[in-house]
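User: Fold this; tokens only.

Assistant: Input:
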Amino acid sequence: MAARLRQHIGNHDSVKRFAAAMAGVIILFSIFHWSRFLYGRYASRRMRNSWPLKAQVSVARMVRHVLTHRAPGFASTGHALLFMVYLGINITLTVTNIDWSTLFGIGKRLGWMAIANVAFITFLALKNTPLAFLTAYSYERLNPLHQAAGYITIIYVFLHATMQCVQFTRLHLNEFLLEMEQIHAITAASALLVMLVFAALVKRMRYEVFYLSHISMYIIFIINMAFHQPIVANKVIIITVVAGSMWSLDRLLRAWRLLWYGYGNRATLVPLPHGGTRIVLHRAPTRAIPGNHCFVWIPEIRAFEAHPFTIVSKSPSSIELVVAAYDGFTDDLHNFAVKHPDASLRASFDGPYGTVPNFAKCADKVMLIAGGSGASFTFGVALNMVRELSDNLPKPKIDFIWTVREPEIFQWFSKELKELKESPRVNIILHSTRMNFDRSPQSPMLPAMSPITYEDKPEFTNHSPIDDEKHHVIHPSPPHSPLSTSNSRFDNFPQDVENHSTSMTNTTHEWDSTLHGVLPRRPDIETLIKNVVASAGDDERIAIAACGPDSLMWEVRRTATNAIKVKGPSIELHCEQFGW
């Protein structure tokens, strides 16, 4: 009896220590985020030049230079380190202060660690997460840690079930497996098995099917876990109820938003060339910021699905989004827009979500780099800055780089390009990898920020199935091309795309890209970033934000990371991806 009591206390302590360790990690991230935020926003030039702060900044830059480099299987060494810390905490708490004499003792510890991790992965999955405020990590940037923690939880559950079943069999107590509490446990484990199969086999092919199954299996798992350990004194059900309550409250809040913003709301659909669709929603939340994203619900396209898309532009009475057709919802949306141009459908949305830095207040120079439909993010950020800042303010300056496959895709954002062109702080650089003219003659309008290179490089690819609009990647062709700094070449850019709606099948080349200064091939991202860093003073702040296919994001991350030095300008990197 005394041994069982010690075992029970040890299991409780392991859960408490796990919660304390996770809280400690969150606190460390919060301190790091807010100290850098306050330093960048409020530190005066005199404070920045003081020896104590200079020393701290130098150490922070050295650490960031190491941690932002890419690691195998991870976006960066920092992400790999965080995962190893999380894994180390789990292993340490699993093997310490445990009764190794029986499989029951080992199995119970595995079960306790499993339920502790269930609460943690539920917290990471919340759309309305407090971590967005505390650490500047919104739910989509936490998703890979959520996935990794989910796999570890499944391992814990199946090891727990195996140990218990083996011990029951050894003691000839198989009849206990037929008790209702154990049947609920088997049902919960089966739900996790379905989750695992769908994550491994279905997620990349049919994300919508995976998502619906994921939600359904989670509900089945939580309910059966509550019935598996229903005694309050054992405290397992308390953790289960906390996890289920967090998830339910988050869902209720999202449902309330859908109902609230669905009242009197309509979505106007405008078809664009090469699978694009512009959505104009006629009600806008006050908190919506271009560059953030929201979940759009259009019941006539999908009655039971809401999909995330980036906010491109906002007015007091509407928000606009540009969506690239990939498959499923986005493909059906575009086909409907082609058949019914300018159709007005009942719609609603949930959001906004995301943690986009206020570049206007934290940078002297801003580089916005996009590939394909990732421009939804960079246009939103650029337009928000241009509209908020007075033209009399000299900083920040903005370099806007956008690469697409077909030149007609520039029409997706024709009115946004026109607005950016009119701002004296914005330098626009456009590239198309499918130009129908010879590259040999260099345009007289190209003062060339970087040398012309034509080395063979692999095409951009994107393998992330999470975000519909980032699914559809405009794959550039291998070679590099020159980069221009001229704005004047856009004087005759096409008019608002809403007046030139075309479908995927009837698009024609109505304008010669060379007349508008659109450059062939891929931009030399590495040289462009290096030139901007080299031209900046040591006391200047450079913000680099990118959105697009994985290979583009890797190139931006690698170059920006190598540019972080102890001496030199401050460099902030923001990679807008659903996941790390």
